[in-house]
């Protein structure tokens, strides 16, 4: 049996925060604002996993009112979400994700992101794809006010 899920997330770009995307700290003069480390890509993937399992979303599992998640490493959140899939007998089919950001340039860091995600999902790097696009200077992403990410995942029952 296969299950599919999709996820979408947005975080504001502000000064004075590290820019952590896909578990990689990217050198940039701004970073993403959130209760956790605000890793927009890992949040979209976490929501895709939860969607595939029909288990709600990350706000339900990790409330932003809970001090336990203040500054949380989203790699740990994704690992926790993946445990829910693994304990139900699923393995990774594949995951495909897109980061929508005018800047910074993601291309140099995509390989590292793929490695982090494959490890967290107990899968192969060949089953993980991360893409980036600008929005051609249009909208909040185009103005550099924030970064969005979306993800689609396929889980396979072992
Ligand atoms: N933040 C980004 C955005 C884009 N890229 C790479 O550039 C290519 C062209 O982007 P367009 O939005 O002009 O289509 C895109 O395919 C990505 O490879 C990037 O690395 N970082
Ligand atoms: C991850 C959580 C929890 O720390 O906080 P944020 O970093 O603000 O991220 P968001 O994408 O708003 O999702 C859910 C939150 O509960």
Order of helices and strands: EEEEHHHEHEHE
Q: What is the rounded Rg?
A: 15 Å
CATH superfamily: 2-C-methyl-D-erythritol 2,4-cyclodiphosphate synthase
Strand content: 25-35%
Termini distance? Answer: 8 Å
Helix tally equals 5
Uncertain parts: none
CATH architecture: 2-Layer Sandwich
Mean pLDDT level:
98
CATH hierarchy class name: Alpha Beta
Widest sheet: strand order? 4-1-7-5-6
Structure notes:
With 158 residues, the chain is α+β, with helices and mostly antiparallel strands. It contains five helices and seven strands, in the order E-E-E-E-H-H-H-E-H-E-H-E. The chain has helices at 40-52, 58-61, 74-86, 110-120, 139-142, and strands at residues 2-14, 19-21, 24-26, 31-32, 90-100, 128-133, 146-157. The strands form two sheets. Strands 4-1-7-5-6 form a five-stranded mixed sheet. Strand 2 (19-21) and strand 3 form a beta hairpin. The longest helix is centred in the N-terminal third of the chain and has 13 residues, at 40-52. The model has no long low-confidence stretch (mean pLDDT 98). Residues 9, 34-36, 38, 43, 58-59, 62-64, 69, 72 line the site of 2C-methyl-D-erythritol 2,4-cyclodiphosphate (CDI).
Offer a concise description of the structure:
With 158 residues, the protein is of the alpha+beta class.
């Amino acid at each position: 049996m296969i299950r599919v899920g999709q996820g979408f997330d947005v975080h504001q770009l502000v000064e004075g925060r590290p820019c952590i995307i896909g578990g990689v700290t990217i050198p940039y003069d701004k970073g993403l604002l959130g209760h956790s480390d605000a890793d927009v890509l890992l949040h979209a993937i976490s929501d895709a996993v939860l969607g595939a399992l029909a288990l709600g979303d990350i706000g339900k599992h990790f409330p932003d009112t809970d001090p336990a998640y203040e500054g949380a490493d989203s790699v740990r959140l994704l690992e926790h979400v993946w445990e829910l899939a693994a304990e139900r007998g699923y393995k990774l089919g594949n995951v495909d994700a897109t980061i929508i950001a005018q800047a910074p340039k993601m291309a140099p860091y995509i390989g590292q992101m793929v490695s982090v995600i494959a490890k967290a999902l107990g899968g192969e790097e060949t089953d993980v794809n991360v893409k980036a696009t600008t929005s051609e200077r249009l909208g909040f992403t185009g103005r550099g006010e924030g970064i969005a990410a979306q993800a689609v995942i396929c889980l396979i029952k072992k």
